[in-house]
């Protein structure tokens, strides 16, 4: 599926937003958006435009939609994801409009002028995720399969085969663990065979 630059930016933002939450299942208790300053850093890192002075109210709103987006990634059926996305977009009061701000080529903003940062994210990120449901690609919205990770990611591989949020960390770590397990199993088998040979030799002597 074709993913434009602005859609990719929205996807990166929603993945980082979901992953900013503590995850008890993987043992990660760190809150990535602990205060307004952390939210400001998130806004800066993702170059989120048209954002004024951030407040505690903004933080509360972003944390609320973060939970809703997490539900989208957890949804197993397209109609469940669609319902969640529809609710996010409707609550944000979307107003699609073309813009070429800050030197970017023409693209569509879905958030209304003057929208809060939470509504901005709900509208633009919600629409970015909606494209996957429309294209029948909702299954690409995934969680890392590493048992001690569970970070959200979007599988953009051609054959939908990506299993880990980062193959160089989670993927390699599990591959190394599996390799070591096979080596231990092989070593144990060799010891068992050696022991059997000793027993057989003793029996023949006796």
Describe the structure.
The protein contains 6 helices and 4 strands. The protein has 206 residues and is mainly alpha-helical. A two-stranded antiparallel sheet has the order 1-2. It has a two-stranded antiparallel sheet with strand order 3-4. α3 (56-74) packs parallel to α5 (117-134).
Shape: elongated
Residues in helix, %: 55-70%
Helices and strands, in order, run as: HHHHEEHEEH
Strand order of the largest sheet: 1-2
Strand content: 5-15%
**What is the helix tally?**
6
Structural class: mainly alpha
**Computed Rg:** 24 Å
Residue windows where pLDDT falls under 50 for at least 5 positions: 174-179
Distance between the terminal alpha carbons, to the nearest Å?
Answer: 73 Å
Mean pLDDT comes to 85
**Biggest sheet details:** 2 strands, antiparallel
Number of strands: 4
What is the secondary structure topology, with strand pairs?
Elements: H1 5-19, H2 36-45, H3 56-74, H4 78-92, E1 97-99, E2 107-109, H5 117-134, E3 141-143, E4 152-154, H6 167-205
Helix pairs in contact: 1-5, 3-4, 3-5, 4-5
Summary, kept brief:
The chain has 206 residues and is mostly helical. It is built from six helices and four strands.
Keywords for this structure?
two-stranded antiparallel sheet; two-stranded antiparallel ribbon; 56% helix; 206 residues; 6% strand; elongated; mainly alpha
